Every structure is written in C-alpha cells, then in structure tokens.
UniProtKB/TrEMBL annotation:
This is Uncharacterized membrane protein SirB2. GO terms for cellular component: plasma membrane. It holds the Pfam family SirB. The keyword Transmembrane applies. Keywords: Membrane, Transmembrane, Transmembrane helix. The chain crosses the membrane at residues 20-45, 65-84, 90-109, 121-140. It comes from Halomonas caseinilytica. It comes from the Bacteria. InterPro entries: SirB (IPR007360).
Amino acid sequence: MTADVHRRQSGRVTMGRDMSLYWLIKHLHMAMAGLSLVLFVLRAWWSVTAPQRLQRRWVRVLPHLVDTVLLAFGVWLMLMLRFWPHQHPWLVAKLIALVIYIGLGSVAIKRGRTPLQRASAALLAVLVFVYIVGTAIRHHPLSWLG
Ligand code: HEM
C-alpha cells in the first residue's frame, strides 16, 4: 500500500505542513537507515580485517548517534501516521527483525570470537536489514515477497 493511501486513511497527515513534515521525517529516517547500513558494513569489515580501527572515537560514537536518530524518526513516523503495531503486522515483523539485526550486529562487531563467526554474523545482519527495508516499503511481513 502506498504512503499516499495511508495518509488518506489515517486522516492525520493530510495537507500542507503535516504533509511536508511527514515527507521530511520519512526522508531523514531513510537517509539514517542508509547511513546506518554503511557504518555497519564498514565496522563489520574492520572487525575482520583491522579490529584496532574499531577503537577510534568517532567509530565508537557516530553509529550509535545515527541509530538513535533512525529509531527516533521511526517512532515519530509511527505516531504521526498512527500506525500501531497491533494493527500492522509488517510493523511487528520490522521491530522483531530489528532486535535480530541488533543481536547479529553485536556478534559481528563485538562478540564473535573468530573472524569467520564475525563475518557470518555480518552477512546475516545485512540480509535481515534488507528484509527490514522490504517490510517498510511493501508494508508486508513477507517483505519483498509480500
Ligand atoms: C534498521 C531499522 C529501520 C530501517 C532500515 C527502516 C527503513 C525504512 C524505510 C526504507 C522506510 C520508507 C518506506 C517507504 O518507502 O515508504 C521506512 C518507513 C517507516 N518506518 Fe522504518 N526503518 C527502520 C526502523 C524503524 C522503526 C524502529 C520504526 C518504528 C518504531 C519504523 C517505522 C517506520 C514507519 C512508521 C515508516 C513509514 C511508512 C509509510 O510512510 O508508509 N522504522 N522505514
């Protein structure tokens, strides 16, 4: 279902200011999602090839900032559109996948004992990320297949 249909259905985000705020928050949410993925892949790469780089200050701080803003904008969109998880299975699927993504990400960057463990977790995390984007775009728990 397109965002336009949702906007009309929700009756909340309609015209003018609401609409441009929705557009802005949604695009910032998407931009943060892209940046979050880039920063994750970079750190996952370093965790296998050059772990000492993970100790740099910006590498430890920036991804957390970006992820916090990403999640905050996600929650903001949810409130603005009045999309409640119990009414939207895709949102529940997205949030569950997000928890899995965070877990895999932590194995990929911190907890994985061997480079192979870390690389495998990173690969799975990217797949889960792709699934999350699919749920958001298709509004379906089957993600790209929905
Ligand atoms: C890794 C985390 C996340 C990623 C990669 C992600 C990705 C996306 C993308 C790409 C869109 C745009 C979809 C479109 O084209 O219509 C989107 C929209 C949205 N996201 Fe997220 N998101 C994430 C986390 C969250 C979280 C935590 C929430 C809520 C708590 C959330 C709620 C929403 C909502 C409500 C929309 C608006 C859907 C619409 O306009 O129809 N997102 N997300």
